[in-house]
Amino acid sequence: MPNFNITVINGDGIGPEIVPQAVNVLGVIGEKFGHTFNFENVLMGGCAIDEFGEPLPQATIDACLSSDSVLLGSIGGLRWESLPGNERPEVGLLGLRSAMKLYANIRPAMLFQPLKSACPLREDIAERGIDMVFARELTGGIYFGERGRNGDVAFDTEKYSVSEVRRIAKVAFETAMVRRKKVTSIDKANVLDSSRLWREVTSEVAKDYPQVELEHMLVDNAAMQLVKDPSQFDVILANNIFGDILSDEAAMITGSIGMLASASLGDTKVGLYEPIHGSAPDIAGKNLANPIATILSAAMMLKYSFGLTAESAAIENAVNAVLESGARTADIKDESTTEVVGTVEMGELIIAELRK
After folding, report:
1. Could you tell me if 170 and 219 lie in one domain?
2. Which residues pair with 168 in a beta bridge?
3. What percent of the chain stands above pLDDT 70?
4. Helix, strand, or coil here: 152?
5. CA dist list (Å): 105 to 2, 20, 263
């Protein structure tokens, strides 16, 4: 019976509500398919600041590095916003990605058919289908470049090396090879030297994948095209900041940011899996949060880190079946909704579907 050790970081805000639902789902998967999942809970983010005085304790790093993968909820909140930038909860997440050497963020953005009416785009656009994957560079660029303040001036530096661009480009092309064989690389090459390097290296990597179509698209045009015709995209390759912004836009056109999962990966199978939404402190503790993105993140863990494709598909199918039944959390309710449920109830419905 395979054993998998998972480090669990509930985090802040709605994190302690949504993560247990994903853990419960993994428990049922273990029962159904004969696996054992061992969970170790650690602190990161605002709750770690409150407990230890820092957002990323060394014990948390050690636990994550010794596990088979990490499941994360959300971090941050209003109560820590007054802290200096280098002491805020978000620093913990950046530090963990760096410690785990996770340079590739994989973010699928798919419109579930039962949620077509929740898509804010015109019906004819939604009917064409939305099914794309972002390959976002995660440990370089403006978030990690030199920064500072000098009197009335503040600066953040966008910086990339050839090796950093090459390795994320390879992830994008490998992903495209098992999908529809198209990569759209996002840059601002008409203005930025870093983007011109990005375009050059991506074009070189493309030569190793002759089956894959490569197109280059300026980031401002990409933002428009995501609204105009999202069906044109298969795999979107982007740097850290462009990928961060555009994937959130893609999240909203699929119905709700509460539906989108993500995987952060490096050169090993050990990954960090988390929903792309924030900690939503305004609804924390009210049993209102949508746990589906976290549950789908757990499904990605099964697929990408553990190689359990059937188990991953079982979760995805269970989520789709529950949505087909008309059950919705408040963020995705529409005219097809038959029942508005809370965080715990949605988790229970998905588990019930898995047990069938």
Report:
1. yes
2. none
3. 100
4. coil
5. 26, 23, 6
**Do residues 155 and 241 share a domain?**
yes
Q: Is 186 within the bounds of a domain?
A: yes
* Residue 270 and residue 202 share a domain: no
Burial (CB count <10 Å: 0-12, 13-18, 19+), residue 153 = exposed
pLDDT in tens, 150-161: 999 999 999 999
CATH classification at residue 64: 3.40.718.10
**Distance of alpha carbon 91 from alpha carbon 93, whole angstroms:** 5
The residues, any chain, with a CB within 8 Å of residue 240's CB and separated by 6 or more, are 136, 137, 138, 139, 140, 141, 142, 143, 144
In which region does residue 129 sit, left (phi positive, over 0), alpha (psi from -120 to 50) or beta (all else)? left
Helix (H), strand (E) at residue 154: strand 153-156
CA-closest candidate to residue 9, choices 38, 44, 37, 47: 44
| pLDDT score recorded for residue 117 | 82
242 and 160, same structural domain? yes
The answer to whether 314 and 302 have CB atoms below 8 angstroms apart is no
For 16-52, write each residue's pLDDT tens digit: 999 999 999 999 999 999 999 999 999 999 999 999 9
- CA–CA separation, 18 and 291 (whole Å): 5
Q: In the 8-state DSSP scheme, what is residue 332?
A: G
Residues 342 and 295 in one domain: yes
Say whether both 247 and 288 belong to one domain: no
Are 135 and 226 found together in one domain? Answer: yes
Residues listed for the chain: 356
State whether residue 196 is helix, strand or coil. Answer: helix
Cβ atoms of 158 and 241 closer than 8 Å: yes
Is position 323 within any domain? yes
The residues annotated with a catalytic role in the active site are: 143, 188, 220, 244, 248
pTM: 0.88
Domain that residue 126 falls in: 120-253
